[in-house]
């Protein structure tokens, strides 16, 4: 009987050795085995509904037109200063949908490396157009009496900063203004 017990313990020892070898070689799942888990998760069917492949495919003509416009950030093509019945208007026209913007009155307008930029006017409105073509630049438009200068300040990390000089009556606070967008244009209406 003794021979049988030894053989029984030998089988247990052999099985333990195999389990330890597989664990050490990565053959079984262990806490440190992320690759095995991620593969099994990817192979597991999802319970959430998914889109069909046809819903994600667009026609070649749509892809060519819309894909190009979506891939290319807007670039300014024209800037214009005009008089309106309510005041003055600065219009920025882009070659694609009008970008988002940030705006504020500033005591001083700065360009690259924080250097001050001289601009005509008493009050200075800075508008930063966001996610525009890094090559966006424009020639200064013809000024009017109240908006003597509109100038490109700089492009930095996808933002194009613009300075608008405004003549304020008797050095008063910066006049009220509204900014609206429509299609490819941004309108800055400076109130009387």
SSE blueprint:
Elements: H1 2-25, H2 34-43, H3 53-56, H4 60-71, E1 76-84, E2 87-94, E3 101-106, E4 109-110, E5 116-117, E6 123-130, E7 149-156, E8 159-166, E9 177-182, E10 185-191
Antiparallel strand pairs: 1-2, 2-10, 3-6, 4-5, 6-8, 7-8, 9-10
Description:
With 192 residues, the chain is α+β, with helices and mostly antiparallel strands. 26% of the residues lie in helices and 33% in strands. The chain contains 4 helices and 10 strands. The protein has helices spanning 2-25, 34-43, 53-56, 60-71, and strands spanning 76-84, 87-94, 101-106, 109-110, 116-117, 123-130, 149-156, 159-166, 177-182, 185-191. It has a 4-stranded antiparallel sheet with strand order 1-2-10-9, with no helix packed on it. The longest helix is centred in the N-terminal third of the chain and has 24 residues, at 2-25. The chain is globular, with a radius of gyration of 33 Å.
